[in-house]
Design brief:
Layout: E1 7-11, H1 16-27, E2 33-36, H2 44-49, E3 58-61, E4 67-68, H3 70-80, H4 92-118, H5 122-147, H6 160-166, H7 169-179, H8 190-200, H9 203-208, H10 212-230
Parallel strand pairs: 1-2
Antiparallel strand pairs: 1-3, 3-4
Helix pairs in contact: 1-3, 4-5, 4-6
Bound molecules: glutathione.
InterPro entries: Glutathione-S-Trfase_C-like (IPR010987), Glutathione-S-Trfase_C_sf (IPR036282), Glutathione_S-Trfase (IPR040079), Glutathione_S-Trfase_N (IPR004045), GST_C_Tau (IPR045074), Omega/Tau-like (IPR045073), Thioredoxin-like_sf (IPR036249)
Catalytic activity: RX + glutathione = an S-substituted glutathione + a halide anion + H(+)
Subcellular location: Cytoplasm, Cytosol
């Protein structure tokens, strides 16, 4: 008899936000059913469960309301499974620093990178490149401060910020391969370079980060969505 999963994740495979949630589910050994969403032809399930933003990920857990927003979802998972691979620091002031950096990362970095990989405008791409490079130096500084000499943002092991930022590792590779932009590189961001190596050395990272081909397909889909919303 097949067992019914209590948890369901609605996602799109190339999405960094969905990757974050999958990362946490794997680290915490939580079983779930995955439902692939077609973002170019959104399902009733997505429109009903996230009517405001109509975006993935959406997490369904038993009788709870559908949950949206990757950062809120990963905190929820950390709270319901606190004893398996805890993600956020126990100290409130360290916790708030993590949340601030995650918010800043999503508000600035994500938008720059997304626009960088999608835009056709070469001048704008050059501007974005400068912003991303400047952002990478800020991220390096934050890493030095938060990691306290350890290999991960979370210290000796993968924590909340490692997942928030690490979910982008596939996109960073895409920037390298298509545009020759090294967001993380030895000279400018030595500690983040080591961090990247530590992240890739973990089986969980290699199994969760989608392949280059999937990211390329996702980029094409984002381009289509961008065209559709500008017409
Ligand atoms: N802030 C949201 C962002 C989610 C998001 O941007 N999802 C994208 C996929 S990467 C999406 O569903 N896009 C479809 C759309 O905006 O129409 C989160 O952290 O979950």
């Amino acid at each position: 008899m097949t067992q019914k999963c209590e948890m369901k994740l609605l996602g799109s495979t190339g999405s960094v936000f969905v990757t974050r949630v999958k990362f946490v589910l794997k680290l915490k050994s939580i079983d779930y059913e995955y439902i692939e969403e077609d973002l170019c032809n959104k399902s009733e399930l997505l429109l009903k469960s996230n009517p405001t933003f109509q975006q993935v990920p959406v997490l369904f857990h038993a009788t709870e309301q559908p949950m949206i927003e990757s950062l809120a979802i990963i905190e929820y998972l950390d709270e319901i499974q606190p004893n398996v691979h805890p993600l956020l620091p126990s100290n409130p002031s360290e916790r708030v620093q993590c949340r601030i950096l995650a918010y800043t990362f999503d508000t600035l970095f994500y938008r720059w990178i997304k626009e960088f990989v999608v835009t056709q405008d070469k001048e704008r791409r050059e501007e974005l490149k400068k912003l991303i490079i400047r952002g990478s130096v800020m991220l390096e500084e934050a890493f030095v401060k938060l990691s306290k000499g350890k290999p991960f943002f979370g210290g000796d092991d993968i924590g909340y910020l490692d997942i928030v930022v690490g979910a982008f590792l596939g996109w960073l590779k895409l920037c390298e391969r298509i545009f020759g932009l090294y967001v993380i590189e030895e000279e400018r961001t030595p500690r983040l370079t080591q961090w990247g190596k530590s992240m890739w050395s973990r089986e969980v990272t290699r199994s969760i980060i989608p392949s280059h081909e999937i990211h390329m397909e996702f980029r094409n889909m984002l381009k289509k969505l961008a065209c559709a919303s500008s017409t």
